[in-house]
Amino acid sequence: MFKKNIFIILLLSFCRMANGQVVFTSLEDVWKYADVHNITIITAKYEAEKSVYAKRQSYSALLPQVNATGSYTDNLALQTTLIPDEIAGGPPGKYLKLQFGQQFVYAGGISAQMSILNLQNVYNAQIAKQTEELNKASLANNRKSVYQQVATQYYSYLLMQEAYDLAAQSAKISDSVFESVSNKFKEGATNEANVDVAKLNFERAEQNELSAKYQMLTALNNMKALLNLSVKDSLAINASLNENLKSEGSATFQEDPAIKLAMYQEHISLSQYRAANSAFAPTINILYNYANQRFDKTFEPFSGASGTAGWFPSQYWSLQAAIPLFTSGGRLFQSKRNKIAWDESKEQYENTLKQSAINDENIRLNYLKAAAVLNKAKDVMNLSFDNYMHISYRYEGGIESIETRLNAFRDYIDYQNQYLNSLSDMLVQLYQVKIRQQAF
To answer: Per 3-state DSSP, what percentage of the chain is helix, strand, and coil (rounded to 5)?
Structure first.
């Protein structure tokens, strides 16, 4: 108990020297903190946000494109055109030198174009929308993965805390046993082999105590890494192991994020296959253009038409169609490749559905098994301790030998380890159940 108090004092001293302090009372509290601070989850959130704008960008291709234009031209030297002089009644073989146009030209206009039929744009927009959903499913799947990592460290800490308490109790008992056997050896009432066994039990208990202490600290550091904390930040877990071992096996499981991930991957593969096939379909666009020009001999961009050349408007609209006739086979091969990719994603999706159902059933079975085995292991450990105490009383009364007492204590240490192994398996199955109960 003295060593345990020293360890707690040192741990608290370390916490006071730290920059910050974070305290958790349950696994759910750690998960909430990880949702905000874990770098993997943060990165996945950014990817989900980017896919929203990628979808909007794809949908904008379905809208009409409208452009306004304006220009100013200064013809420094007008081009000269030769015209036969005989057109004007002059002699043949002679030419008139004429210059057409004005020095300054002002122009402005507006044009609009819209795709009436372009299946590739439609499927690209559909792919962008499905990619947005895929990134949401990927975020959920990443959260599930981070939750598993966090739960591993959280329960590892609680497990090592339990191991530390048991090791501290065993070290205290084995210390007194070792002292008692040593005194008996000095009195000549026992042999050196029994002293060695007593010392071995004591060293073994101290070894377990030391190992548990450092594994607790390691678990805290691993959790800091998952929660984006620095090594100087203080992290404390104020939770009871018994509270965390409450029954969870009968709760309803939520949909596995891996299913949605596989489903949207299948949807995207189908849309990509359809988009590849749409390359053989015709495209139809509608175009409208309006333009206005003014010519002038003087630089008067803001003058009216009065006394100068007037504005000359023009406008037109057109319907354009394009039908692919021959594309060297490249689009055909791309379509075949996308068809294979779609078939593959369908198989993966169906396999994910089956595998997820099997995994859920195994999680329930493993949880029930681990809970039953843990109860037995704990009962056996407690019985072993009671047996050791009975033998100790009988030894004090001169009924049992020192060898029997040492063997009983050694058995208790072995059953302690079996209990901790069962507890470790139970905690693993427990957090698997808890995670499947989360709606990501």
So the answer is: 65, 15, 20
Q: Where are the alpha helices (DSSP H) in 188-329?
A: 192-226, 241-244, 257-277
Short-list 137, 131, 127, CA closest to 44: 137
Rg (CA), the chain: 41
Fold of 2-37+118-281+328-436: Outer membrane efflux proteins (OEP) (1.20.1600)
Domain ranges (residues) in the chain: 2-37+118-281+328-436, 65-117+282-323
Given pLDDT bands bounded at 50, 70 and 90, which one contains residue 298?
Answer: confident
CA atoms of 32 and 181, how far apart (whole Å): 53
Neighbouring CB atoms inside 10 A of 232's CB total 11
Question: For the segment 23-60, what is each residue's pLDDT rounded down to a tens digit?
Answer: 888 888 999 999 999 999 999 999 999 999 888 888 88
Collapsing DSSP to helix, strand or coil, 327 comes out as coil
193 and 120 Cβ atoms separated by less than 8 Å? no
Position 304 pLDDT exceeds 70: no
Q: Do domains 2-37+118-281+328-436 and 65-117+282-323 have the same CATH topology?
A: no
How many CB atoms neighbour CB 235 within 10 A?
21
Give the burial string for 76-85 (b: 16+ CB within 10 Å, else e): eeeeeeeeee
Please report, in angstroms and rounded to a whole number, the separation of the first and last CA atoms in the chain: 43
**Structure-token pair, residue 24:** 């958790």
Helix, strand or coil, per DSSP, at residue 78: coil
pTM as predicted: 0.77
pLDDT in tens, 214-247: 998 999 999 999 999 988 888 888 888 777 776 6
Helical ranges in 227-306 per DSSP H: 241-244, 257-277
For the 65-117+282-323 domain, the top CATH level (class) is mainly beta
State the CB neighbour count (10 A cutoff) for residue 422: 21
**Dist CA 258 CA 135 (whole Å):** 12
Q: How many CA atoms lie within 13 A of 185 on its CB side?
A: 16
Query: What's at 267, amino acid-wise?
Result: H
One-letter amino acid identity for 164?
Y
